[in-house]
Amino acid sequence: MSRLPLTVGIIANPASGRDVRRLTANAGLFSSTDKVSVIQRLLAAFGATGVERVLMPTDMTGIAAAVKKNSHGRQARDSHWPTLEFLELTLRQSVADTRQAARWMAERGVSLIAVLGGDGTHKAVAAEVGDIPLLTLSTGTNNAFPELREATSAGLAGGLFASGRIPPEIALRRNKRLLVRIPSRDLCEVALVDVAVSPLPFIGARAISRGIDLAEVFVTFAEPQSIGISALCGLWFPVSRQAPNGAWMRLDPQSSEALLVPLAPGLLQGCGVLAAGSLEPGVAHRLCLSSGTLALDGEREIEFNADDLPTVTLDSGGPLSIDVNAALAYAAQERLLAIGREHPQHPLNLAL
Amino acid sequence: MSTQLTADQLLHAYRVMRTIRVFEERLHVEFATGEIPGFVHLYAGEEASAAGVMAHLRDDDCIASNHRGHGHCIAKGVDVHGMMAEIYGKKTGVCQGKGGSMHIADFEKGMLGANGIVGAGAPLVVGAALAAKLKGTDGVAVAFFGDGGSNEGAVFEAMNMASVWNLPCLFIAENNGYAEATASNWSVACDHIADRAAGFGMPGVTVDGFDFFAVHEAAGAAVARARAGEGPSLIEVKLTRYYGHFEGDAQTYRAPDEVKYFREHNDCLMQFRERTTRTGLIDASQLDQIDGEVDLLIENAVRKAKSDPKPSAADLLTDVYVSYP
């Protein structure tokens, strides 16, 4: 039997990075052109680390088209891009496209999926791919799950792992998740970073831009340097990604204690703090409001009323992701990127 | 910006969207009889955009529309019978029956006109915004154009000038996926129309045009910005049209189940009804009552428009730039 080519997937959310926070805060733009260049940096890194084939979905915003066009260029040839294969989707221009692409990649047995998007995009991919590791890249507005990182070095870490040169116990980390359940509506949704309970009655433009629109927050982890809803806990009750527990906070504008929080880029909001504590795994929490909206990973997604009685539960069943720092530290220690005399890019082989 | 709308505001928004839907569905039927002159381009499916933006505007705020303008007119408060009579080419129309579907205008309501020239509304709106700024009012001006219009030079020039002069302007790109029969993902080079805002130094956002609340929230933020003297914004509203580019368009360029899918999954009216009644802010019977009132309104508008008189030959020489003896 012939060996299957070493294959990884790349999923870029074409919609990320252009929501209402350009109007309500000072969020920047992550254009389709920028996403194309991030993918091409990944392809160069994958090509250099032995990945043979890359799967990508098509999209309505020209990302796949531009990558395909550029795959015939000199850069692609000189940096030995992997072979590209595109999935022809019936595009719905919603999260359904991301989920469909992720399922297709899982069926094709990819070693790794690189995800370009925000917390929401990563959550959608994670829901479909089981234990296929994610290489997370932030192209959203304010993200906590994917770190802000240069795609070339992230791609090297991912490629070295996919090609078997970094052991999983070094390269991979298991993430926590939050499960939101409404049994009467047969609903079970996942969040990777935070669930916020808001008195706002409608999903609207999704982002939450005011401190007074938050009543309660649950987080899987909260880092002080983060931005967005998890920054609230990050600056009051921080919890690391590795800790088994998460955190919760209850908020009230009438509270005497308050905290200044960066809810979005350039947007600092005062939030009244009532109480905070550790969120233990496996315990289903009722919400402090009987009706309102639930924001999962920063975006209002679920409208609920008094009949719904949603619960939030922390568990350790989140996706595997590449720990880029740990993977590259190992690569340095083992000199994994050292090249021999036969390598075409060895300086002695370059025709100067 | 929050979405804390009062029950009255919610009911008004529903009435606007429902009026547009029934108006357009009825025109679809009536146009097939051959009684209506010229072309009509129907707005059905896109109602949340007009209603969500116009909820923030006053009569002294100006808008300029495009060829698909009925929804913008209704949402801006133009009289429904006056519009219907105009489309039928009758003397009782808002432009005395001499404009037709693509030239409905009503300055009293700040409606500068539908427009048969693609992208031509944007420069008009820059003028209106400049007027508001020079007069020192806090009025705003809003240009509606489509994905096709977003490729027009006039729109780029208007966006540039609005930004250079820091004018109280909104550019609303209603991206329904097709410029006539040409797919926007083929013809719009940067694909996300909102991304173009960066080139003109203004914020650009994309919103779900099937969701009234999403449009309402983004437009509210942009209007507040404009009224506060902070300059123009671009909002790309992603939506779909339920009918062809014009009535009679065979739509061979669309996937067979495309419209069916959107009607079943992304109907702004259905979504609005489900969500407002579930929150308990609105009772379904209140919406049913509006449905009945709107049906009657449109029925009366059509019946009256059909029996209204046509303009006379002498009317040809009125309302023109040159006076004739």
Descriptive notes:
The complex is a heterodimer of chains A (352) and B (325). Chain A has 352 residues and is of the alpha+beta class. Chain A contains 10 helices and 18 strands. Chain A has helices spanning 21-24, 32-48, 63-70, 74-78, 95-107, 119-129, 151-162, 168-171, 229-234, 324-333; strands at 7-12, 53-57, 83-87, 113-117, 134-138, 172-174, 177-182, 187-191, 194-198, 216-219, 246-251, 258-264, 267-279, 284-286, 292-296, 299-304, 311-315, 320-322. In chain A, β15 and β16 form a beta hairpin. The longest helix of chain A has 17 residues, at 32-48. Chain A starts with 6 loop residues before the first strand and ends in a 19-residue tail after the last helix. By secondary structure, chain B is of the alpha/beta class. Helix content of chain B is 43%, strand content 10%. Chain B contains 11 helices and 7 strands. Chain B has helices spanning 7-31, 47-54, 70-76, 80-87, 121-135, 153-164, 184-187, 212-227, 258-265, 268-279, 284-307; strands at 62-64, 141-146, 169-175, 178-179, 182-183, 204-208, 233-238. In chain B, the strands form 2 sheets. In chain B, strands 1-2-3-7-6 form a 5-stranded parallel beta sheet, sandwiched between helices. Chain B is globular, with a radius of gyration of 19 Å. Chain A binds chain B through residues 14-15, 18-24, 29, 31-33, 60-63, 90, 92-93, 200-206, 209-210, 213, 291, 303, 305, and chain B through 1-4, 185, 189-192, 194-195, 197-198, 203-207, 211, 213-214, 216-218, 221-222, 225, 233, 238, 255, 261, 275, 278-281.
Sheet with the most strands of chain B? 5 strands, parallel
The fraction of residues in strands of chain A falls at 25-35%
Give the SSE string of chain A. EHHEHHEHEHEHHEEEEEHEEEEEEEEH
Helix content range of the residues of chain B, please? 40-55%
Q: Helix- and strand-based class of chain A?
A: alpha+beta
Task: Write the H/E string of chain B, N to C.
Answer: HHEHHHEHEEEHEHEHHH
- Cα end-to-end separation of chain B: 56 Å
Count of DSSP-assigned helices of chain A: 10
Q: Please count the beta strands of chain A (DSSP E, at least 2 residues each).
A: 18
Overall structural class of chain B, as computed from helix and strand content, comes to alpha/beta
**Major sheet characteristics of chain A:** 7 strands, antiparallel
> Per the principal axes of the C-alpha atoms, what is the gross shape of chain A?
elongated
Which quaternary structure do these chains form?
A: heterodimer
Question: Overall mean pLDDT score of chain B?
Answer: 94
